[in-house]
Amino acid sequence: MSQTCPCGTGLDYNDCCGRFLDQGAYPQRADLLMRSRFTAYVRRNRTYLIKTWHPDTCPALTENDLNGTEWLTLEVITHHSGLKKATVEFKAWYQTPQGAQCHHERSLFKKVKNRWVYLNPIAE
Asked: 118: which residues sit within 8 A by CB, 6+ positions away?
């Protein structure tokens, strides 16, 4: 049964982030990695989040850290990529008891062993 990918592309999950989360492919651009990480949060896929987080900044992420937040939608605003570093600005909406809230971030991604990984948010 097909379902639309949570990352906001409008594509079928298996043709979009499912190929990264379930089928072993790896995103070739930082914006695609950002989308797949959002989908991993929606699906509470701790293993994928850790795999795509830079080892120097990856927290001790537990299953409990992923529970309790219902992620709603993702908007990728900008994406700038170099050979070894990239930035992605995004807004991710999530549900709270008070209503929908927005997490707005500019993220830094870095290539490690020829794969993009999330490094950290960029301080404004």
From this structure: 33, 34, 37, 52, 53, 54, 57, 107, 108, 109
